[in-house]
Amino acid sequence: MFKILNMQFLNPTIFRMDVEAPMVARACLPGQFVIVRSNDEAERIPLTICDYDREKGSVTIVVQIIGAGTKILSEMKAGDSLADFVGPLGQPSDLVTDDIEEVKKKKIVFVAGGLGTAPVYPQVKWLKEHGVDADVIIGAKNKDILIMEEEFKSVATNLYITTDDGSYGRTGMVTKCLEDLVTAEGKAYDHCVSIGPMIMMKFVCALTEKLGIHTVVSMNPIMVDGTGMCGACRCSVEGKTKFACVDGPEFDGHKVNWDEAMRRSGMYREWEAKEKEARA
Amino acid sequence: MIEVDMMKKVPVREQDAKVRATNFDEVCLGYNEEEAMAESTRCLNCKNARCVQGCPVSINIPAFIQEVKAGNHEAAYQIISESSALPAVCGRVCPQESQCEGLCVRGVKGEAVSIGKLERFVADWAREHGIKPAPAKEKKGKKVAVIGSGPAGLTCAGDLAKLGYDVTIFEALHKAGGVLVYGIPEFRLPKEAVVEKEIENVKSLGVKIEKDVIIGKSITIDELFGEEKFDAVFIGSGAGLPKFMGIPGENANGVFSANEYLTRSNLMKAFDSSSTTPIMKSKKVAVVGGGNVAMDAARTALRLGAEVHIVYRRSEAELPARVEEVHHAKEEGIIFDLLTNPTEILEDEKGWVKGIKCIRMELGEPDESGRRRPVEVAGSEFVIDVDTVIMSLGTSPNPLISSTTKGLETDKRRCIVAEEATGATSKKGVYAGGDAVTGAATVILAMGAGKTAAKAIDEYLE
Questions:
Q1: How many CB atoms lie within 10 A of CB A205?
Q2: Domain boundary residue among A70, A89, A108?
Q3: Average pLDDT estimate for B315-326
Q4: Residue B265 pLDDT > 90
Q5: Same domain, residue pair A162 and A209
Q6: CA atoms of A137 and A200, how far apart (whole Å)
Q7: Same domain, yes or no, for A174 and A234?
Q8: Fewest C-beta in 10 Å: which of A241, B53, B121, B254?
Q9: Quick one: CA dihedral B74, B77, B81, B85, positive or negative?
Q10: Measured between beta carbons, which residues in chain A are less than 8 angstroms from residue B240?
Q11: Rounded to whole angstroms, how far apart are CA atoms B272 and A31?
């Protein structure tokens, strides 16, 4: 059992949980994920690691309520225990495993949207701790659902916030912000990391391809075991089938087959809708 | 009294094929005491018992059968337990026809003694009567880590615990049992009634099971020896990586590996309508492959309401599945499309499977496996209109451990290299066995390897 040390809602549907998991906390690196089960009947939910404290032995996850499994998770409180919390899974981000001197030469921008804002944080934090500059663009629909602004202020070299409706920061999508920075505000980047909804990552990749910026994305497809056993998470990268759980989750975004990835992520949408109805 | 025909097995009761095709209850009902005692009279109690030579864990088969004959079922259980940690499992899933029963003298003129069903009877009887294997009296004061809680790991752990070692099993999933819980379906191997109880028995020997630990990720083998102070390690991590064919359309919605399909149904309980685990509601399914896993996937899909076709490129004689599984599958209404090989999976405009394009095959000259090589019949392509395709083409070992352990040699199939007689790997103090070494094989061969390694680990640590 894995004790919940802290539980906090960041906006009405997104919450942050610090979980006591010393083995994961000791071994994990930014870019990796865990699989969580709230109780013994629950589904296995893959979640990208959002922070960790090796001394305390804790790992932070940020979760959005989407289906039944995340709803149950959202109802748990500090002091409760999760049935399962396994990891770290997948490969760490290249930025933390590549030669640090090479990484320092890169001009890095992170482009985050919605829930994807959370897993960007440990990467930017790690870079800051290792003396690497990185700009961060965070997008949200509106001011009320923007998350983690304060945390990013202390780790990002420059932080740009943009909201779809203009209720805070710049107005428009993250792609507009990035394009403005590069084409109108004299910014130059050669490495982009984009994490967010699949459709956002697809459009960021289309833009960065045009701008000639190498782009890494973090895939979060349907998974069962997370260890390479089932192949539910397979995606096509440069025409080759990859398992996001063991080969990823980060891939070269310009080589991902986005249409296939989006189609596959919706495989059980109808099933889940019917289930929801049947159980209501 | 049951009249026994010495040439024939006492028939075992099974659920009617039509009924069982719609439920997940166990197919084979097993012998009751009267039937078991009747069948036991057929054993010739051979001095030079060939059946024992056919058993990968060398159970003293004639001795336990003689105890059944005398009605001493507890004594029979203790004899089996000396050699096997999982008799209720083996009695159900071992390929007896090619092992113990394949060598039985009775089988020369008539049918072999039904050794598997007798083993199952004894194990079930012991469980129902609360009889457990006896733990070690003396402790060795040494720690052994076992990676994986499947058949190889459980057997190795059980044997080492009986010898007095302090054994911890590390399991990656949230439930112990490996392929016994994620792979083999409920209707062949009940989980709560049988598998969980067998695992309880192993735990009652003092074995600890740590779930949610992925060796190579959460902790490495070197760390197990270092800070965790283990004296030896056994790797029984199985062959978990599914193979795909590499044909067009394989990533369409509705194409699954058998591993995924079975894991959803078995481990995640999608077979149970009260579970929240999604599983495709298929109308017509093609299962590609002819092994036991293919039969399990096909029979699962059938029970979930689909018409199911097995698509296999060789002929019936070459089907790698156990005869009993093929027989049961046919009885239940699985359709066998033999000498048929898929060339493409067809998608509808939304990317869902709408058919599988196949080509007819004929058998040519024998290949390196000794089986006749299937050759395509030119121009014979045709389409089976299915909405689901399950790929059951075998599995290979997961590289998570080998890629994170320095000095652990693997072969080109990514199998861990281990000495057959001991399970010793290229790394000192590290032993391996089961599918992680051989590639996908059977439960009992994995158990045999776990047993061999336990003996070698004991000698190494002495």
A1: 24
A2: A89
A3: 91
A4: yes
A5: yes
A6: 13
A7: no
A8: B53
A9: negative
A10: 225, 227-229
A11: 35
Q: Which of A99, A90, A88 is nearest to A130 (CA)?
A: A99
Residue B178 in this model has a pLDDT that exceeds 90: yes
For residue A12, give the H/E element and its range: none
Say if the Cβ atoms of B240 and A228 lie within 8 Å. Answer: yes
Q: How many CB pairs under 8 A join A and B?
A: 101
For chain B, say whether A230 makes contact (Cβ under 8 Å): yes
- Please choose, from the candidates B429, B393, B371, B439, the residue with its C-alpha nearest in 3D space to the C-alpha of residue B233: B429
A256 CA: distance to closest CA in chain B (Å): 13
At residue A279, the pLDDT reads 62
Same domain, A82 and A100: no
Residue A14 shares a structural domain with residue A29: yes
Q: How many domains does chain A have?
A: 3
Which range marks the domain in which residue A119 is found?
94-214
In a domain, A274, yes or no: no
Q: Assess if residue A277 is contained within a domain.
A: no
Contact between B276 and A267 using a beta-carbon 8 Å cutoff: no
Report CA-CA distances (Å) from A58 to A82, A103, A117: 13, 27, 20
Per-residue confidence band for B133, with pLDDT thresholds at 50, 70 and 90: confident
The enclosing domain of A170 has a CATH number of 3.40.50.80
pLDDT at A274: 76
* CB atoms inside a 10 Å sphere around CB A255: 15
A273 in contact with B, Cβ within 8 Å: no
Residues A98, A210 share a domain: yes
Query: At which of A178, A195, A214 does a domain end?
Result: A214
**A23 with B219: Cβ contact below 8 A:** yes
CB contact under 8 A, B174 and A230: no
Q: How confident is the model at residue B112 (pLDDT cuts 50, 70, 90)?
A: very high
What are B343's two structure tokens?
A: 């060339």
Q: Would the CB atoms of A225 and B218 count as touching at under 8 Å?
A: no
Q: Is A240 helix (H, G, I), strand (E, B) or coil?
A: strand
* CB-CB neighbors (< 8 A) of A264 in chain B: 251, 253
Instruction: Examine the pLDDT at B57 and tell me if it is beyond 90.
Output: no
Please tell me which of the candidates A42, A86, A271 has its beta carbon nearest to residue B214. Answer: A86
With a CB-CB cutoff of 8 Å, which residues 141-170 of chain A face chain B?
Answer: none
Domain contains A276: no
Residue closest to B221 by CA, chosen among B234, B206, B207, B203: B234
Distance from CA of A271 to the nearest CA of B (A): 7
The residue ranges of chain A whose pLDDT is under 70 are 276, 279-280
Helix (H, G, I), strand (E, B) or coil at B178: coil
Query: What local confidence, expressed as pLDDT, does residue B216 receive?
Result: 94
Tokens of B447: 């158990």
In chain A, which residue's Cα lies nearest the Cα of B395? A229
- pLDDT of amino acid B273: 82
- CB nearest A228 (choices: B254, B276, B398): B398
Q: How close is the nearest chain A Cα to the Cα of B72, in Å?
A: 39
B168 confidence band (pLDDT: 50, 70, 90): very high
Same domain, A208 and A101: yes
Contacts of B270 in chain A (CB under 8 A): none
A81, A99: one domain = no
